[in-house]
Each structure stands twice: as structure tokens, then as C-alpha cells.
Amino acid sequence: MAEKRSKSNKKFMVLSALGIFMVVDSHTFTAIDLFGNFLPYNSFFMPMFMFISGYFNKVDKDTKIFPYIGKKVKNLLLSFLGISLLVFGIELLMDWFKSGIPPEVPGWYISYSLERIVTLGSFAPIATPMWFVITLFATLIVYALLKKLLSKIRIWNSFVMLAIFTGLHIFAVYIGKNADPEALTYYLVLFKVLFFLPFLELGVIYREYLEKKHESLSGGSKLGLMVILLLINMVRTMYLPTGYDVAFDSLDDLSGFTSPFLVTPLISSIVGILFWLTMVDLIGKPFHESRFVNFMSCNTFWIMGLHITFFNILNCILLFISENITPLLYFDAEYFRGTEWYYWEISPNFKLAYVVVGVLGPLGIKWIWDKIKSLITKPLQKKKAAEA
User: What is the pTM (predicted TM-score) of this model?
Assistant: First the structure.
């Protein structure tokens, strides 16, 4: 997801770009809120990323496990490490700016960060969204080992495994709703894997059995399907204490399951995924040749890992203006100095500024990185070609 390339599957290119936009918009408390009254982002968008990964995941009995794991380490864990180090460096500079005191890393910080990574999946609150990378890696590896083994002995069946994964998913939701959070700390990754496995398999099933049927639907049928999905969510909210109970807010620590029904996260996720998959299939073609959408889709990890950082960079600029040029109404400088999750609430429309910097900032950093890497690698490639 972090490579510079032109994606050939345009539908899923648009879907993944849309998904990462939803992540940024969600963390501004929905500046834009696409269909959020019917399909809250937190009711489906992280399972949708796992569904997309499942669609492109082609593990079978012939897969060579160690090269497969090595590829995932390179593409996921090294990306996680690089982006985390970049965020850490920027955070130190911002803390220096906010406090006026040169940054100093406490002796306990490394052990604290490592513990966060193996439990919550991110090294610090400012990089919280990166929890998904660790969970994705673990889910892909567990899935690959299971499928390789069971395919070898010829007992793998996608629909049977989906039923098994669904049971494990419901068990994970039960644990998330009922277990003591402290007792769950060191088992979070395991239970998040159980939570996400059915969505990975659904991506495989969609690719192998459903995609052609879905794409062959007429425009009217697709519209009808989307209406049905919206009605399903509308009807379901009548049976929940509050309409937002279709959502689940804190998957990083496997909490936020407020619905009384254990199947709510599964149903909500399937409804949201199928709705937006159909929407993209229906009206996504104008974006198929968009270089920006392609670049956004190819660099979702950069946006995921850096958008909170860029929210804070914007706040640092506002802090400078407020304290050195002119006081900004309602800008709470002291509150901002104490948290990475502050937003200037001068007006609801200003949240759009956070969305813009949250998307364009990380992409700008990635564009600069690509240019630097190109300047370094091109001469080396020319030298190798000349020597050959």
C-alpha cells in the first residue's frame, strides 16, 4: 500500500482511497461525514481495509511461507517502523515548540513504546491509527499458515472457514464486551486477529465467487441494493438503545462495542462494505484515471500514520499565531500543550482544514521522499547499466 505505482484494479483503488479519507474524516469528528447518519464510519471502515487485503491475498497450498512472511515484513513492518520513527522525530520537535524545552527522551520511553506496539499496536498516542498495520500483519500471517496447512491436507473450504472465522469473530466481540481490559492487555493482538479473520476471507470469497455477479448487476439493481442496505441499518437502529450502537469505536484496544448484540459488528461491517463497494462500482469510473486518487490509494499507510501528526502541525501554527501575532478566539493553548487530540473549534467548517492537512500533508511527505529516493537510485541504476 505504500509503493509508488499505478494500480490496475481501479475499483479497489478508489475504494481504498475512500477508506483512508474516512479514517481522516473520522478523526476530525466527521467534518464531511459521508452517509454517516446511515452508515457510521466506525461501523465498517477498518473491516473494509481487511476485506480489501483479503481480495488481493492469494495464498494457497503452493505458497512458500517464508518468502511470503518476508514480503509482509518488508511491506508492513518496515513501513510501520519507518513511519513510526518519522512521527517520533516530528513529535519531539513539536513538543520542543510547545514547551520551549529541548526534547529529551526519558529512559522508560523505549520500553513503554515497545509495550504499546505489542499490545495496542502503536508506539504513542499520536500514532494510534497505526495499530491496524500490526493487526493486518498478524492476521495475514495466521491466515496464511492456516490456509497453507489445511490446503495441503485438502480440507480447506472458504465457506466452511468463513463460518468458523465468524464464530471466532463473535467470540472476540464477546471478550471485548465482557473481559477486564487490564487482563486483556497482552492478548489484544490475538483477539483482534480473531475479530478480523472473517473479513479477510470475505475478500477472498468476493474475488473468487461474487465479483462478476456483483459487477454484472444493472445500474438500477445496484441502486436497489444500496437502498436495501441503508434500510437494513435503519431498521436495525430501531432495535438498539441508540442509533450509533451499530458502530464500534475503539478497535485498537478491542472496546467500544455498545450494541447489546454480539453480531452487530459483523452485520454492520458487511452492510457498510457492500454499500460502498456497490457505490464505487456504480459511480467510481470518473476517478479511475485520477493520479491523485491513485497516489492516495498507494500510500494509505503514510496517511494512516501521519494524519494526526499533521493535525498537530496545524495546531502548532495556530498556537504561534495566537501567542505571537493575534489571539485566536477559543483556541485553548494550554489544552493543546497537553494532548495530541486537540481541535480548534472556532466553527464546524474549520474542521475541513484538518481534513485537508491530514490528507495532503502525509502525501506531500511521501512525494518528497520519492523524489529524494529517485535522486539517489537513478545514478546507481545508470552506473549498473553502464557497467553491464
Answer: 0.93
